[in-house]
Amino acid sequence: MTNPWVAFLLVPLVKIVVILLAVILLAAYMSFFERKILAYMQIRIGPNRVGPRGWLQPIADAIKLLVKEDIVPARAEKLVYFLGPVLVVAPALVVFSVIPFGPAFKLFGYEVAPYLTDVNIGILFILGVSSIGVYGVILGGWASNNKFSMMGGLRSAAQLVSYEVPMGLSVVTVLLMANSLSLVKIVEAQKQAGVWFFIPGIVAFFIYFVCGVAETNRNPFDLPEAESELVAGFHTEYSGMKFAFYFLAEYANMVVISSIATVLFLGGWLPPFPNWLAALWASPALAWIPPIAWFVLKMAVFLFVYIWFRGTFPRYRFDQLMDLGWKVFIPVSLVNLVAVGAGVLLIGGK
Amino acid sequence: MSEQDNPSGAAPASPQPPAAPKPPWEEKPVLPVPRDAREQAQVRELAAAVADAVIEAVEFAGQVTVTVGRERIAEIGRACKEKLGYAFLVDLTAVDWQDRPEGRFDVVYWMHRHADSVRLRLKVRVGADTEVPSVTGVWKVADWMEREVFDMFGVYFAGHPNLERILTWEGFNGHPLRKDFPLEGIDTGAAVYPDVFPPGGGPVAGGEGE
Amino acid sequence: MSNLESIKPFPDSEEMEISFGPQHPATHGVLRVLLRLDGERIVDAKPVIGYLHRGTEKIFERETYNGTIPHTDRLDYTAAATNNQALVGAVEKIMGVTVPPRAAAIRVMLAELQRIASHTIWLGTHALDIGAQSPFFYTFEEREKILDLFEEYCGARLTLNSMRVGGQPYELTDGWVDRCRAFVDQFPARVAEWERLLTANRIWKLRTIGVGVISAASAIEWGLTGPPLRGSGVKWDVRKVFPYDRYDEYDFEIPVGANGDTYDRYLVRLEEMRQSVRILQQCLAKLPDGPVMAKVPKVIKPPKGEVYFSVEGPKGELGFYVVSDGGANPYRLHVRPACFINLQALPEMVRGLLVADLIAVIGTLDIVLGEIDR
Questions:
Q1: Mean pLDDT across the stretch B38-43?
Q2: Does residue C285 sit within a domain?
Q3: Per residue in B85-104, pLDDT tens?
Q4: C62 — contact with chain B (CB < 8 Å)?
Q5: CA gyration radius, chain A
Q6: Which residues in chain B are contacts of C59 at CB distance < 8 A?
Q7: Is residue A30 in some structural domain?
Q8: How many angstroms away from the CA of C80 is the closest CA of chain B?
Q9: Is residue A20 in some structural domain?
Q10: A163, A269, A272, C350: which could form a disulfide with A214 (CB 3.0–4.6 Å)?
Q11: What domain range includes position C166?
Q12: Where are chain B's structural domains?
């Protein structure tokens, strides 16, 4: 009794709206969580005025940025200047179309999957689309008609590009273990194996997350946007909503990295030890926990670690940052790749 | 203090212990007195190291000040550093003794020797328009110190690598620590930018200073 | 974010000249550094100062000797007590005044508390510049406790005016000693916390080891004093070399570094905080009784002559050169500013480094523009 209009049009539309809203709200509220958590780490309270205990702060910030005067530098290249923030935000949001938040379930007779789609080149799609974000950084820096913005943009772009390599290599180790590029199949492979992939792929897991921190320009890799630096960064000349877009993109990218790390390494929507402890998870006390809750919990752990890093570490100097990426992470991830490949060959015989 | 008999004939008082001397903070302070120090060890050393260097030597409050000739200060400074071991120039400053016949300014060099932790002050008398050889070749630290003396007093140091004003701004006219420079300051409009502002007038509304 | 303007790029070379400051979050005041860059390497750096020049030495000539003391608070405004100590020590030397032991002990306590307070500002801001944002809050919390002690003693938190020629103006309030002891006893645990965050941290070490190196011989040549000198291995501290205020009665060590880089200066200052705690504990244990003010004339008129007296401030050797002509106002009162002379060595320390290191070096020199510009 499935109506094709509903199945192929309404359901995806609803999913798009829900996912977009959820992601944008989450990215906005990430700024709030960051301010609160960082504050408590620094023996202070953080925003607590706007709304009950400060919970409406991101809404207030959004309204403020929307009504702010939009200043465009006189000789900026208008079209490209406008495109910069767009090219940063759009890929971050598009990536969410393939990330699975939970297994398919039945709703009103329709088979609904809490993800927009499951392309069989899922991971490749993600890596490709998120690389477009680098263009937003470079073009934003260039279009500002400010030589130091340009330099900041180039530095940031160099950082992003360099750290994509070890990140990609870590992802490949997961592919070796899961034997598929599709994100849903990767999660199911973890269920089949009975263990989350971060255990066999522990090195890849750490490299992926640390490179993810570098990819999002977060502390300790946030030199391009540090205040105490000479070069102010690619988003100096942006104000109002365009500036907000760069920061929205940064938080959205944090959510992207956290989600992908969850899917690839922490079993996505699976509870811990899904086979071994299957009886426990099926018991009436715990059976009500929806799989998406596990996903969100794991993602939250990563997001907390992001904020924790910010409250703890000094930042790397740019040359040290590049050294770390090229001279440490790439060799280690290459060696790890070979090791995991050998391991898969020996154990799985595939 | 010995016992004293009571002259009026009453029974003698029991023996008094000698009164303890009062601690120095309960007495009036003993002001230090300047003394001639030509025979003092540091001065004799200096006289031996550089012939005819010492013009005058005074010791006051435990610190020795040697007045030396202006033209020879760089040479004497180098001898102090290399032969006598005063490697650390602690301070270099000047004092304005207006209208003094020997020279308006005193430029003062305060040096330290690490080996036995003694310090020595060299003093040089300079007239208003005479220059003093710079000691930046001897002690690198003298660079900014001499610039400050130039800025505040107008004493010119010959051979200084970069004798510019350091504390007041570029284009400032006048030397603030001279006694004839008023405490309230001077007209910073015309005095500093004479080609922009009328004499006696400050910055004019709508005008553009630099 | 940052403030920069390109000045006179050299036409026939790749070099670029940039002005860093005077308004910049990382220069700790109004300091301007003219940088000549080759790509990102610093070819030369020229500090430009004077933005905070207030004519303090000229004002001194107008005041009475006790009246100059509040002006000294505003020199190195993060370390007012040691400024006061240097000035009153100089005037007492030229007057031949000996302060009572209780006054000397109170001065030592105020000075060591002030040393800790100054170093907490240094650590918070230095870590913040290098990117670690949290130590700033932790160190300032400790500083609040010290400022509360100061406020209780002399009524002011920052510009203390807490000493007079001849002794102390106020007796310690009831319970001040206990509150001070409570602070001092819990402080080493705090320093250990801050160390856990930074000292062994790989990123901190990468940013500070080998950055801003100056050799011991260079340090003496450039007249450095304080932690920049001791970080280069020269064990020299005015409190040991020319003891004042009965410092020779206390037992404490002078920490020195080995390599003269930023990391060593960081360790030296942390250890100095611990040694200050040691001195404070000894002071609190054997605080002598007695008057807090010596017998000095109502109007201070030193004899004609000149005297130099210095103390070991948190930044280095802070000295006062007093020239008296017999009157009630100083004829010339010159400040030997530790920060001014330490800053002079900046180009030496920064040549060949990257721009990000300039910020680390400015932080490690621990400059306060109030003392530099007077």
A1: 86
A2: yes
A3: 999 999 999 999 988 888 89
A4: yes
A5: 21
A6: 183
A7: no
A8: 21
A9: no
A10: A163
A11: 66-373
A12: 30-158, 168-205
Which residues have CB under 8 Å from A202's CB, separation 6+?
none
Chain C window 82-111: which residues touch B at a Cβ cutoff of 8 Å? 93-100, 103
- Write out the residue range of the structural domain in which residue A191 sits: 68-348
Contacts of C129 in chain A (CB under 8 A): 228
pLDDT at C160 over 80: yes
Report whether pLDDT(B156) > 60. Answer: yes
Asked, for residue C19, whether it belongs to a domain, the answer is no
Note whether A315 contacts C127, CB cutoff 8 Å. Answer: no
Task: Report the pLDDT averaged over residues B145-161.
Answer: 92
Q: Residue C59 and residue C53: Cα distance in Å, rounded?
A: 12
Assign domain B30-158 to its CATH architecture. 2-Layer Sandwich (3.30)
Q: What is the pLDDT of residues C198-230, one digit of tens each?
A: 999 999 999 999 899 999 999 998 999 999 999
Distance from the C98 Cα atom to the nearest Cα atom in chain B, whole angstroms:
5
Mean pLDDT rounded to a whole number for chain A: 85
Is A270 inside any structural domain? Answer: yes
CATH code of C277's domain: 1.10.645.10
The number of folded domains in chain C is: 1
Average pLDDT over residues C283-293: 91
What's the domain count of chain A? 1
Q: Give the count of beta carbons closer than 10 Å to the beta carbon of residue A198.
A: 21
In angstroms, the CA C363 to CA C348 distance is: 15
Residue C40's alpha-carbon distances to A155, A162, C16, C37, in angstroms, are 12, 19, 10, 6
Please check whether residue C248 lies inside any domain of the structure: yes
Q: Coil, strand, or helix at residue B28?
A: coil
Residue A302: CB atoms within 10 A of its CB come to 21
Residue of B13, B10, B29, B27 whose CA lies nearest to B1? B13
Nearest by CB: C223 against B25, B141, B185: B141
Q: Do chains B and A touch (3 or more CB pairs under 8 A)?
A: no
Q: Name the pLDDT band for C9 (thresholds 50, 70, 90).
A: very low
Does residue C271 belong to any structural domain of this protein? yes
Rounded Cα distance, A11 and A18, in Å: 10
For C67-119, the pLDDT digits (tens) are: 999 999 998 899 999 999 999 999 999 999 999 999 999 999 999 999 999 99
**What region, left, alpha or beta, does residue A349 occupy, with left being phi > 0 and alpha being psi -120 to 50 degrees?**
left
Half-sphere exposure of A304 (CA within 13 A, CB side): 9
Which of A236, A311, A320 is the closest to C206 by Cβ? A320
